[in-house]
């Protein structure tokens, strides 16, 4: 076990908890691809809250446990992480949570529309799709996730379960997890006001372009 990588996974788990995009019990899992190897480091603890380094496991992308103790509850969802790394060579980090507002959409089996600008800015201009229900981590669930994902879209709702986010870096994955939760909360808060209104498709691209233009300029120093 590489102590640095195990420490990184625990640090990501702590940052997910700090982001607030997590259910009260902290249920969820985080994984990190091992650069240059067909492996990932994975949180095998019962909660992301206060996750210990000793509960991190090393797992092959074929699903084989290579090092550590993997309890059945966490073992059952390993495949939904390994599938993301196998399918998307650029993905370096996968997060799964039951963040409450996004999970409400997942339970209602309703996609999150692009009614918050941040979705357009961070690869979710088409909103967050829903993967059909399958028992957590099963072949059916993983097949549904694969079917729901559109290229370049870094998140999917898992029907009757929660959220899955996969991105190049932990920073981007945590950011997207927070944006998905924020958009879901805004959607639910807007419901009594007549419901959220999506940004017109042509303006979603404009939101992204404006972000990129500011990105290219970098931070200004006065
Ligand atoms: Zn779950």
Report on this model:
This protein is an alpha+beta fold. It contains 8 helices and 8 strands. The chain has helices at 3-19, 72-75, 78-87, 100-108, 117-121, 139-148, 170-190, 201-217; strands spanning 28-33, 39-43, 56-60, 65-67, 93-97, 130-131, 155-158, 162-167. Helix 1 packs parallel to helix 7 and helix 4 packs across helix 7 (170-190).
Short summary:
The chain is an alpha+beta fold.
Mean pLDDT: 95
Q: What is the H/E string?
A: HEEEEHHEHHEHEEHH
Low-pLDDT parts are none
Structural category is: alpha+beta
Q: Which oligomerization state do the chains in this entry correspond to?
A: single chain
Indicate the overall shape. globular
For the terminal residues, how far apart are their CA atoms? 46 Å
Care to count the β-strands? Answer: 8
- Taken as a percent bin, the fraction of beta residues is 15-25%
Q: Helical proportion?
A: 40-55%
Q: Helical region count?
A: 8
Radius of gyration: 17 Å
The set of bound ligands, ions and cofactors reads:
zinc ion
Strand order of the largest sheet: 4-3-2-1-5-8-7-6
- Main sheet characteristics: 8 strands, mixed
């Amino acid at each position: 076990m590489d102590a640095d990588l195990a420490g990184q996974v625990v640090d990501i788990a702590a940052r997910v908890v700090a982001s607030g995009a997590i259910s009260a019990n902290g249920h969820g899992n985080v994984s990190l691809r091992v650069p240059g190897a067909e492996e990932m480091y994975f949180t095998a603890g019962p909660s992301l809250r206060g996750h210990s380094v000793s509960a991190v496991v090393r797992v092959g992308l074929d699903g084989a446990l290579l090092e550590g103790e993997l309890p059945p509850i966490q073992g059952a969802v390993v495949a939904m992480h390994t599938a993301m790394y196998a399918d998307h060579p650029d993905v370096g980090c996968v997060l799964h949570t039951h963040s409450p507002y996004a999970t409400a959409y997942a339970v209602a089996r309703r996609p999150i529309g692009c009614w918050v600008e941040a979705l357009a800015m961070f690869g979710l201009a088409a909103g967050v799709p829903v993967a059909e229900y399958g028992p957590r981590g099963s072949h059916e669930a993983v097949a549904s996730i694969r079917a729901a994902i559109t290229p370049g879209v870094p998140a999917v709702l898992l029907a009757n379960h929660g959220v899955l986010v996969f991105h190049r870096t932990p920073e981007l994955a945590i950011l997207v997890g927070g944006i998905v939760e924020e958009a879901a909360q805004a959607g639910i808060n807007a419901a009594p006001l007549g419901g959220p209104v999506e940004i017109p498709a042509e303006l979603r691209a404009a939101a992204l372009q404006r972000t990129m233009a500011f990105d290219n300029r970098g931070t200004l120093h006065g």
